[in-house]
Amino acid sequence: MKTSRREFIKQAGVFGLVLSFPDWHTRRSGKLLRVLIIGDSISVGYTPHVKEMMKDEAYVEHPVENCQGTKFGLQKIDKWIGTEPWDVIHFNFGLHDLKHVDPVTRVNSEKAEDPQQSNIKEYKENLEVIVKKLKTSGAKLIWATTTPYPDKPSGPYRNAADVLEYNKVALKIMKKNRIPVNDLYSYILPDMSAMQLPNNVHFKKEGSEALARKVVAAIKEQVAKGS
């Protein structure tokens, strides 16, 4: 059974989140650590939990929109970074890039023969540009690997093996740029069947909470290391 985006947000315990983000560029966090999380709907699911877990330590925000794939990221990355400084930027792209789309309309497709939103070469090139832009922010950067999903989940066509190939490409880019990696893929994989919605790329509330704990740990680790 397919799970709608609205139903996913309800089950993740963050109903209305996408519509209720404040204008984070106009708020002030005082002496709190400033953390920006960039990512797709998986990060939309865990960001509220990260906020709650770090409420006494950090000002945590996510762009008002689902950050989708690298093509959308190239269009929006400057806006997302904004003009105010960030101490840490935790980011990910992948699930949207590897999904298949209609070659003419570019809307989501359930056909394996249709192309991916960004093929592996495009993904690499786009991510390299995004990383270059993020490095100019002066923030500590943390890359999150793309989370796993069952083979051919509901919604647009996605092959479960593709996430490994895209993660592999991303890891090479992060290694080259000396960007630490938060391996959410390996972390959630052993408990995927219990933490993830059935036949879906999205996670149950407990899955989003588990991912949030891993994100918080990664942020704290990098902050503790200092400059």
UniProtKB/TrEMBL annotation:
The lineage of its organism: Bacteria, Pseudomonadati, Bacteroidota, Cytophagia, Cytophagales. This is SGNH hydrolase-type esterase domain-containing protein. Signal peptide: none annotated. GO terms for molecular function: phosphatidylcholine lysophospholipase activity. InterPro entries: Ester_Hydrolysis_Enzymes, SGNH_hydro, SGNH_hydro_sf. SUPFAM superfamilies: SGNH hydrolase. Residues 38-209 form the SGNH hydrolase-type esterase domain. It comes from Dyadobacter helix. Pfam families: Lipase_GDSL_2.
